[in-house]
Every structure is written in C-alpha cells, then in structure tokens.
C-alpha cells in the first residue's frame, strides 16, 4: 500500500507499485511509471515520461523527466529511465530524451548530489557519485563507478570512463578515459585513481598494469602509436582492453 500525502497530486493515469511514500506538495504527472518502495520527500516533481524503478529516494525540489533544454525538441514522445537504489538529492534536475536518442538513462546505486543536472539523452551507469552543482550537457555518457566532484562542467557528447575521479571545479570538452584522476586547468591526466581502485578491490598488480598502460599511451605523440605500445608490452586483461577500446572509439578525443 502506498502512503500518499493528501497535499500531493498524483495523476490518475500514473502507474505506481507498492510501498511508495509520496510526501506533501509532490506532483506526479500522467504517463509515468513508478516501481515500489520509493520515497519522495516533499516538493518532488515527476514529469511526463518518467520510468522509475524501486527503492529510490528523492529529496525536496528534485525534478525528474523535465522537458529538455534543447531548442530542437518539438514535443516528441520521450522518456527518462531511473533504475534502483538511487539517492537523488535536493534540486536535482534530470531531463527526458529528445528525438536524438529518445531516452535519458540513470542506472542503479548512484548518488546524485544537490543541484546537479543531467541533460537530455545522457546515460549514467551504476555506482556513480556526482557532486553538488555538477552539470552534464546533452548526450554525455558516464560509465560505471565514476566519481565526479562538485561544480564540474561536462560538454555535450563527452564520455567519462569507469572508475574515474574528476577533481572539483573542472571543465572538460573531451573524453576522460577509465581508471584515472583528471583535474587542473585546463583539465588533464593527473594520475591513476589508486585509492579508488583499491577501494573497489583492484590488486596492486592490476593497478601497476594500468599505470604502465597510461605511461605508454601518453609517451607517444600520437595516441595510435601509444595504443600499439600497450598491445606490444602488456597482457590483454579486461582492464587494458577497456582502455584500448575507449581510446580507439573516442569521438571527441581524450584529455592528455
């Protein structure tokens, strides 16, 4: 049974599971599907096109599946998918998709901190932490277990690799490959994310291989030559393959 405040509005066409708590002044629009055991504190807005899983907590002022901030958007049907076990803090805004991809996706087990924004057609993986007031422009991809500190600005179409740590206040208009710390101004490779990798169970041998991979990658003037050095000198573990695939398929180029 759901607990719905008499001061909340739930559209009669909204579909809700069981065990949800919907606080006062929440607004849940039509064409929304909400799973079970979600908590919506006061003043949460769930807009048209939201598809929400289970066990999420939404804090006051969060607005989910908002109309895209894209002048090309003409009102086409699109959605915003939220997975399970997310903590979505105060005043977080997540736009729904556009005709480009149709869907904005946020996975599971993420912490989205106060006042951050996820724009249309973005894809955020699982286990990510995104800091206060960080902004993702349209069609950004954040891979699993990335940590993005506060007030970071990420240009549209960029991709952020898995297990990355981005220092607070950074700006990037290029892709950031996996397993590293990125920061400074202009943003650049700082080091391997050693502490983060150890916390996630990476062995010293794995970390050393990743360190050597980036030494080889950045030692050459051309990334293509750096990739060949990696292939010739390191075993093709899943982590090394991930680096090679990420760099080889980058559309915006990677930070150096």
Helix content estimate = 10-25%
Characterize the biggest β-sheet.
11 strands, mixed
| DSSP E strands, number | 28
Overall, the morphology is elongated
Q: What order do the strands of the largest sheet run in, or round the barrel if closed?
A: 1-4-7-10-13-16-19-22-25-27-28
Count of alpha/pi helices: 4
Structural class, please?
alpha/beta
The stretches of 5 or more residues where confidence is low (pLDDT under 50) are: none
Our measurement of the CA-to-CA distance between the termini, rounded to an integer number of angstroms, reads 53 Å
General description of the model:
By secondary structure, the chain is of the alpha/beta class. The longest helix is centred in the last third of the chain and has 16 residues, at 204-219. Helix 2 packs antiparallel against helix 3 (223-233) and helix 3 packs antiparallel against helix 4. The radius of gyration is 20 Å and the shape is elongated. Helices cover 18% and strands 27% of the residues. The strands form three sheets. An eleven-stranded mixed β-sheet has the order 1-4-7-10-13-16-19-22-25-27-28. Strands 2-5-8-11-14-17-20-23-26 form a nine-stranded parallel β-sheet, with no helix packed on it. The protein has helices at residues 194-199, 204-219, 223-233, 238-249, and strands at 3-4, 9-10, 15-16, 21-22, 27-28, 33-34, 39-40, 45-46, 50-52, 57-58, 63-66, 79-82, 87-88, 93-95, 103-106, 111-112, 117-118, 123-124, 129-130, 135-136, 141-142, 147-148, 153-154, 159-160, 165-166, 171-172, 180-183, 188-192. It is built from four helices and 28 strands.
């Amino acid at each position: 049974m759901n607990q719905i405040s008499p001061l909340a509005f739930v559209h009669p066409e909204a579909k809700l599971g069981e065990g949800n708590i919907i606080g006062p002044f929440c607004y849940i629009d039509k064409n929304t599907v909400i799973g079970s055991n979600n908590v919506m504190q006061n003043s949460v807005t769930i807009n048209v096109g939201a598809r929400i899983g289970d066990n999420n907590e939404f804090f006051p002022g969060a607005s989910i599946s908002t109309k895209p901030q894209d002048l090309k958007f003409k009102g086409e049907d699109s959605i915003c998918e939220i997975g399970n076990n997310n903590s979505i803090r105060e005043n977080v805004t997540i736009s729904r998709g556009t005709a480009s991809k149709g869907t904005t996706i946020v996975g599971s087990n993420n912490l989205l901190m106060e006042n951050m924004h996820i724009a249309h057609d973005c894809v955020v993986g699982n286990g990510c932490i995104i800091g206060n007031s960080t902004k993702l422009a349209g069609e950004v991809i954040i891979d699993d277990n990335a940590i993005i500190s506060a007030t970071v600005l990420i240009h549209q179409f960029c991709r952020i690799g898995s297990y990355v740590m981005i220092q607070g206040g950074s700006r990037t208009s290029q892709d950031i490959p996996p397993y590293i710390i990125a920061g400074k101004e202009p943003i650049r490779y700082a080091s391997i994310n050693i502490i983060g990798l150890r916390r996630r169970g990476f062995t010293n041998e794995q970390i050393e291989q990743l360190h050597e991979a980036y030494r080889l990658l950045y030692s050459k003037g051309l990334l293509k030559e750096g990739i060949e050095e990696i292939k010739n000198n390191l075993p093709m573990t899943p982590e090394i393959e991930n680096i090679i695939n990420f760099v080889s398929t980058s559309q915006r180029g990677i930070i150096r």
